[in-house]
Amino acid sequence: MDAVSVVEGRAYPLGTKNVDTDMIIAAKWLKTISRSGLGKGAFEALRQDPDNVFDDPEYQGAPILIAGDNFGCGSSREHAAWALNDMGVVAVIAPSFSDIFSSNAFKNGILTVELPQDAIDRLLEVAKTNPIHIDLDTQSVTTPFQDRFEFAIDPFRKHCLAGGLDEIGLTLEQDAAIARYERTEQNWLRPVTA
What is this structure's pTM? Predict the structure, then answer.
C-alpha cells in the first residue's frame, strides 16, 4: 500500500448523495479477484451520460472525489475501493460514509475525509476549475482561494495511511519483537539436559 501524506490535484465534483457500492462498481464486475482493471467499470451507470464527470478530460486522473452524504452505502463489496484505487482516486471527501466502505477504503489506502455539507458545497464549486489540496499531517483540506477545512481522523488510521501500512505492514513493524518472542519460546521449548 502506498503511503498517503498529501493529496493534491483536480477532484471529481460528483456531489451525489447515497452513492452505493453497486453504483461505484456494478455486480457484473465482481467475478474477478484481481484489483486491476476495475477502474474501467467504476461508475458505469453514471458514465452512460455523455456529460458525466468521470469521462470529462478536465478531470481525467483526478486523485480526489467529492461526494454527497452516505457515500459507499449498500453492500460490503471491497471491489468498490479497488475500483476507486484503479481509477487513481486516493481520497474521497463527503459529509458521511458507510462504515463498511470507510473501512474497506482505509484498508486499501484511500483517505476518507468527512466535512460538513457547507464545506462540501464550497469544494464542489472550487473543483470545477481549480485543484484541491489535502494534507494528512495537518488534517486539512485547502483551496487556492484560502479556504481551509479541518477534518478528524482516527490516530491509528492516520498512522497506517501515512506509513503505507496494511495488515502485513503493521505486522512487519513488529518484526524485532516477534523475533525476540520466537527466540524466547525456542529456549523455553528446548529439552532440559542433566
Answer: 0.89
